[in-house]
């Protein structure tokens, strides 16, 4: 994923005709060129490379081979090489443990905030920050499950279908980033989370039957949480206020609302009061047109039983 400290500084703001602003935040989350790496991500890549060089320097100072450090951290020597060469970003917990093992005295831990931002493309850093601050998140999906709901296997299947194709290191980085975003489910106080998903999304067998089965099982588990409501927009419904496509509404603690949307390689973050109010109203209509939460979970169970 906050928004005012990341995206706005990078984006051009233009009037939306409603007294607010539409902030263009560049290319969409799943869009890529040049093998999955974009020019605007060079700064983030530099941060990752600098961290990797620091890790390598401290490892050598401690007189350790990569295999030894990997063994103590629970990784292979090749994974340690990926960290040191800036091809993968370690988790915050791994950074803490590595700092302790190489006796860095907190030096590696200083990189955690920068690395957290660097794991997302520049255009998504603001949204990632908003997710961390959200007291309410409302999401309508029509193509794939929201990243917050995806299993690791589903993530890999979707990312593997990107065209042009993504290199394996980019896929691994994006999987790790999406998994990190799912910490929103463990936060306390728990944010209010609502997901309306088109029925077609629940039927697409991206990655095969087993991947879909695992994804649907995961949806049922997530749907049991008291702060989460999952609804299905049925294919046979005659009304759907979401025909313009998927979008997400995030509300911060200060009651400021943001609307995020992506389509065909572009993404935008709407911040104007009129636009966010209308989006929230539209989402309310979508929820009323979808199956109710209990009925939706029963529907998912039925699909699962038919696989």
Summarize this structure as a short list of keywords or feature phrases.
Endonuclease, Chain A, disordered N terminus, 48% helix, 307 residues, 434 Repressor (Amino-terminal Domain)
Descriptive report:
By secondary structure, the chain is an alpha+beta fold. It folds into two domains: 3-38 and 121-306, Endonuclease, Chain A (2-Layer Sandwich); 39-120, 434 Repressor (Amino-terminal Domain). It is 48% helix and 15% strand. It is built from 13 helices and eight strands. It has helices at 3-10, 42-61, 66-73, 77-84, 92-101, 112-118, 122-133, 152-160, 168-181, 199-203, 209-222, 273-289, 293-306, and strands at residues 12-15, 21-24, 134-141, 192-198, 228-233, 247-252, 257-263, 266-270. An eight-stranded mixed sheet has the order 1-2-8-7-6-3-4-5, sandwiched between helices. A hairpin with a 4-residue loop joins β6 and β7. α8 runs antiparallel to α9 and α11 (209-222) packs antiparallel against α13 (293-306). The radius of gyration is 21 Å and the shape is globular.
């Amino acid at each position: 994923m906050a928004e005012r400290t990341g995206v706005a500084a990078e984006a051009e703001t233009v009037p939306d005709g409603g007294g607010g602003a539409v902030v263009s935040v560049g290319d969409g989350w799943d869009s890529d060129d040049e093998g999955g790496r974009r020019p605007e991500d060079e700064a983030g890549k530099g941060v990752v490379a600098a961290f990797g060089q620091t890790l390598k320097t401290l490892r050598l100072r401690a007189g350790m081979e990569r295999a030894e450090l990997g063994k103590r951290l629970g990784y292979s020597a090749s994974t340690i090489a990926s960290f040191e060469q800036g091809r993968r970003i370690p988790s915050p917990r791994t950074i803490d443990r590595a700092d302790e093992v190489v006796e860095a005295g907190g030096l590696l831990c200083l990189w955690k905030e920068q690395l957290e931002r660097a794991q997302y493309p520049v255009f998504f850093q603001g949204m990632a920050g908003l997710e961390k601050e959200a007291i309410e998140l409302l999401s309508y999906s029509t193509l794939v499950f929201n990243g917050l709901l995806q299993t690791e296997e589903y993530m890999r299947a979707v990312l593997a279908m990107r065209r042009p194709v993504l290199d394996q290191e980019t896929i691994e980085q994006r999987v790790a980033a999406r998994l990190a975003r799912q910490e929103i489910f463990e936060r306390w106080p728990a944010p209010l989370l609502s997901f309306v998903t088109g029925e077609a999304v629940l039927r697409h067998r991206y990655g095969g039957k087993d991947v879909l089965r695992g994804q649907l099982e995961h949806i049922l588990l997530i749907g049991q949480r008291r702060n989460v409501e999952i609804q299905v927009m049925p294919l046979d419904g005659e009304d759907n206020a979401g025909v313009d496509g998927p979008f997400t509404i995030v509300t911060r603690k200060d009651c400021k609302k943001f609307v995020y949307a992506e389509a065909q390689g572009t993404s935008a973050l709407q911040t104007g009061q009129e636009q966010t109010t209308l989006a929230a109203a539209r989402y309310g209509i979508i929820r009323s047109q979808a199956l109710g939460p209990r009925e939706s979970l029963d529907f998912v169970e039925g699909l699962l039983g038919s696989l």
